[in-house]
Predict the structure.
Amino acid sequence: MSMSFASLDESDQGYLSGHLLIAMPGMDDERFARSVVFVCAHSVDGAMGLVINKPAPDLSLPDLLVQLEIVSDDEAIRLPPQIDRMPVLMGGPVDSSRGFVLHSADYAIDESTLQVDGDICLTATVDILRAIASGGGPREAVLALGYAGWSPGQLEGEIRRNGWLNCPADPGLIFGASAEDKYDRAMRLMGVDPAMLSMSAGRA
């Protein structure tokens, strides 16, 4: 597995970077139905984000660390207990073999960590997994495989067509909620009762 994303750069920040996108019930793209996406970078060149509420099926972080040969099978048994609580998510349909770690701002790797906002960072190198496996690394983290990408103007168009709601990100929702609860919690963060949201909400 490659753990790099070369185009991530501080200059890519702007627009909705650091926000959540919440899929409307009428979302045209079934791959993003009931998705909550954390926007890592958004500029005139497009946008990149990570789906934060879709667990990777049948894959735990200890399994992944063994697959990446960061730890052996024997060492996997002795990993720090918080590793079992760190979810592995399906971050999006693009490059699903690439890994991205969203994490708290108490950890950074020089020239590899992108600070998306004051509380949330993104690191896409295998070094952060080595740090986590050794008991170091960030206090809070989620690992996403793959990402969601939008070409210039595409995300803005989807928002105009009522495909997405957006709001500033809440670290408690990203790191502290179970994946199954994040969609409803994100809706409530915006003051929306998911049960009352019509399939045609906002459409003429």
User: Anything to note?
Assistant: Residues 179-189 form the longest helix (11 residues). Residues 10-196 form a domain with the VC0467-like fold (CATH 3.40.1740.10). Confidence is low (pLDDT under 50) at residues 1-14, 199-204. Strands lie at 19-23, 36-43, 46-51, 88-90, 94-104, 113-115, 120-123, 141-150, 164-168.
